[in-house]
Amino acid sequence: MADFKLSARQKSLSIWALYAIGLLPGLYAFYLGIFGGLGADPVREFEHRLGLWALRLLCLGLAVTPLRDLFKVNLIAYRRALGLLAFYYVLAHFAVYLALDRGLIFSSILGDILKRPYIMLGMLGLVLLIPLALTSNRWSIRKLGSKWNTLHKASYIILAAELLHFVLSRKSFTLEPATYTAIVLVLLGYRLIRPKIMAAKRKNSARMRAT
Amino acid sequence: AAPLTGKPTAYKVPDKLTPKKDVTTYNNFYEFGTDKSDPANNSGKFKPTPWTVEIGGLVAKPQKISIEDIMSSFTMEDRIYRMRCVEAWSMVIPWIGFPLSALLDKVEPLGSAKYVAFETVVRPDEMPGQSGFFQSINWPYVDGLRLDEARNPLTILATGLYGETLPNQNGAPLRLVVPWKYGFKGIKSIVKITLTEKQPPCTWNILAPNEYGFYANVNPKVDHPRWSQATERRIGESAGLFGGARIDTLPFNGYGEQVAGLYKGMDLTKFY
């Protein structure tokens, strides 16, 4: 990988650009929804698009580590933005579910949440994302030290829960959920073999230094 | 699609019609792809004529009948029905078609016949969903009814909608419409009808027997294992994001008066 470096100013600009670009699909879907461009069932389409972008952003966030380990692509500076964007999409998805899909009829919403495994899984993801979003700042990282790393491993559970939420909400297991399942299995499976890969790498570089 | 008119009948619900644009662009017809817009986008190559339907099994007069013969032998009628999808959305569709019982009379079912089995055409060259790497269904799509359900006056074979012959994406040239059952029972592009003694296999029932039963009667009290069936969203009520509130789902999709008797004494939570 070419070793090009961004200045600190360029880096922070590119992070802000990522936030702006990341919010575009949601804003565009909202725009389409207002003007009748989301097809026959606009609420469902809007809800699904927001949820799907949340899932995509979670996948991207969890791809940062394997990309750095295996391909020396270092996107760690963008991981917080990816995680927070995913959180915003999950929040928007949930708000659309409450207000537009269920029409704020809380008696039926509560029953829905308690009875439906796929909604419980979606809620679990949302609830777990809250502490991660709250501690996604430098002060928390310093304050929590190694506990911060442990806490943010919850992202694995979040991704698994949101994937299942997506798969179970569908009538059948078609190509689209199959593709996301494969991607998530790779991302989470990598975490299982990562200690071995890192140990081998350390051994390798120690040997390089010794000779 | 060519112009087609039906004889006016009393079989019409007072609900507002779903716009034709939505009826013809928001479809489940996995033979053309699993996305709702796939059937309208991918069915251009499909040829609904010439077409022959083979009717056999436990009948006195098995026969092959062309779509032209069907159109000329039976009186086409206007039927405005609610259509409730198992995915909890619904439409109101002005069909043109004729009672399935008229076709059954023509082939004279034997006394031993208890069920009617249906089969959809298999044409991977014209139906892109039937070829490719990832197949969600074993083709052909099959479904069936009990003979008394098939003979109910509400049960029709549709040949058109909105004043014209069926568009490819809606199941051209001939499809089943059973308005008190979930939409997936309305098998499309039918090539084979067989009278049987045993309950015939049904595609969705084979795929997930705990989620989709043989009967698949619309029932707000029996939830799908993964989602509620108590309410539905009427397609086309609102083009934008606001104003498309949910409405309550009715038992037998509102046709209980005509069909509840078919299931007298049956536990509908068991025979879902």
Automatic annotation (TrEMBL), chain A:
Compartments, record wording: Cell membrane; Membrane
Co-factor: note: Binds 1 FMN per subunit. Binds 1 heme b (iron(II)-protoporphyrin IX) group per subunit.
InterPro entries found in the cross-reference section: Fe3_Rdtase_TM_dom (IPR013130), MsrQ-like (IPR022837)
Residue intervals passing through the bilayer: 12-38, 50-70, 82-100, 120-139, 151-168, 174-193
Annotated coiled-coil segments of the chain: none
Domain Ferric oxidoreductase, first and last residues per copy: 50-160
Listed GO MF terms: electron transfer activity; FMN binding; heme binding; metal ion binding; oxidoreductase activity, acting on diphenols and related substances as donors
Topology of this chain in the membrane: Multi-pass membrane protein
One Pfam family cited in the UniProt record for this chain: Ferric_reduct
Cofactor(s) for this UniProt protein: FMN; heme b
GO biological process entries: protein repair
GO cellular component: plasma membrane
Family: Belongs to the MsrQ family.
Quaternary organization: Heterodimer of a catalytic subunit (MsrP) and a heme-binding subunit (MsrQ).
NCBIfam families, A to Z: PRK05419.1-5 (NF003833)
Function field: Part of the MsrPQ system that repairs oxidized periplasmic proteins containing methionine sulfoxide residues (Met-O), using respiratory chain electrons. Thus protects these proteins from oxidative-stress damage caused by reactive species of oxygen and chlorine generated by the host defense mechanisms. MsrPQ is essential for the maintenance of envelope integrity under bleach stress, rescuing a wide series of structurally unrelated periplasmic proteins from methionine oxidation.
Name of the featured protein: Protein-methionine-sulfoxide reductase heme-binding subunit MsrQ
Species in which this protein is naturally found: Rhizobium oryziradicis
Gene: msrQ
